[in-house]
């Protein structure tokens, strides 16, 4: 993955539970034509156990890179190009800070994936999201940009290579622009923003506030035609 603070990239999140091999090929082909930069694959549960199959289908439809965005340590596939190795630095759940990483380490080494050490910051979006429930952690209050900024800075000081500000998949409200700005001001590593982005304006606003990557999942699952609007996004 070529993450950089001077770029504005769009990533599409594919949840393998919400698609199948045929459907995903169509989505990915359309997304590639629309100028999407790379794909993330992962979900909270993976009820269908189809991770390898979905990544193989994506790879048939695009030459863009595919990165794992794992909801748990079982979601590792050597078919991907790399992995966002997430440490949930906004929470105080030891398993999500380091425990799962220990369990996954030997498998990850064998898989020879590009590893992107990522500080994952969960932000309150008004109502509980799957990630807040499953992670059993308290999100950063949305009106406290300074907490998010200090958390991101601590992550960078610990050596993490990027920060992901996450409102949660399907969030009612995306991460506020004031929080993106405050985090961007403190950071020198790339900033990924996702969760609840469902309009062209919200995505442009996230870029203007300082996001280097925006991640879109639910809006495309619900309305694949939204990919047409992505073409026109000001970057
Ligand atoms: C979730 O940030 C991603 O981890 C994408 O969220 O599904 O709300 O677009 P949405």
Describe this structure in words.
- This protein is an alpha/beta fold and 235 residues long.
- The chain has helices at residues 21-33, 51-61, 94-111, 130-135, 145-157, 177-186, 200-209, 218-222, 226-230, and strands at 9-14, 38-41, 65-68, 82-88, 114-122, 162-166, 191-194, 213-216.
- It is globular.
- It starts with 8 loop residues before the first strand and ends in a 5-residue tail after the last helix.
- Bound molecules: SN-glycerol-1-phosphate.
- SN-glycerol-1-phosphate (1GP) is lined by residues 13, 166, 169-171, 194-197, 215-219.
Features:
single chain, 235 residues, alpha/beta, TIM Barrel, 8-stranded parallel β-barrel, binds SN-glycerol-1-phosphate
Biggest sheet strand line-up: 1-2-3-4-5-6-7-8
Order of helices and strands: EHEHEEHEHHEHEHEHH
Classification by helices and strands? alpha/beta
Q: How many helical elements? A: 9
Q: Architecture in CATH? A: Alpha-Beta Barrel
Percent strand equals: 15-25%
| Through-space gap between termini | 19 Å
The 3D shape can be described as globular
**What is the domain tally?**
1
CATH superfamily: FMN-linked oxidoreductases
Low-confidence stretches: none
Mean pLDDT across the residues is 95
Q: According to CATH, what is the class?
A: Alpha Beta
Total beta-strand segments: 8
Percentage of helical residues?
25-40%
CATH topology: TIM Barrel
Q: How large is the radius of gyration?
A: 16 Å
What is the makeup of the main sheet? 8 strands, parallel, barrel
| Ligand types | SN-glycerol-1-phosphate
């Amino acid at each position: 993955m070529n993450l950089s603070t001077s770029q504005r990239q769009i990533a599409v999140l594919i949840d393998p539970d919400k698609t199948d091999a045929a459907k995903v090929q169509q989505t990915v082909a359309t997304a590639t034509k629309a100028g999407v930069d790379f794909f993330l694959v992962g979900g909270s549960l993976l009820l269908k156990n189809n991770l390898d199959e979905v990544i193989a289908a994506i790879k048939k439809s695009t030459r863009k890179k595919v990165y794992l965005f794992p909801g748990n340590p079982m979601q590792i596939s050597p078919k991907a190009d790399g992995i966002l190795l997430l440490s949930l630095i906004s929470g105080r759940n030891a398993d999500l800070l380091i425990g799962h990483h220990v369990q996954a380490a030997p498998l990850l080494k064998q898989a020879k994936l590009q590893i992107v050490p990522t500080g994952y910051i969960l932000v309150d979006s008004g109502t509980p999201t799957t990630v807040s429930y499953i992670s059993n952690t308290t999100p950063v209050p949305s009106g406290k940009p300074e907490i998010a900024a200090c958390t991101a800075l601590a992550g960078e000081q610990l050596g993490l290579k990027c920060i992901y500000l996450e409102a949660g998949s399907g969030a009612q409200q995306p991460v506020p622009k004031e929080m993106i700005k405050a985090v961007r001001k403190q950071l020198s590593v790339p900033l990924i923003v996702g969760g609840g982005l469902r309009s062209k304006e919200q995505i442009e606003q996230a870029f203007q506030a300082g996001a280097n990557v925006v991640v879109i999942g639910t809006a495309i699952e619900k309305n694949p035609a939204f990919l047409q609007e992505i073409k026109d996004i000001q970057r």
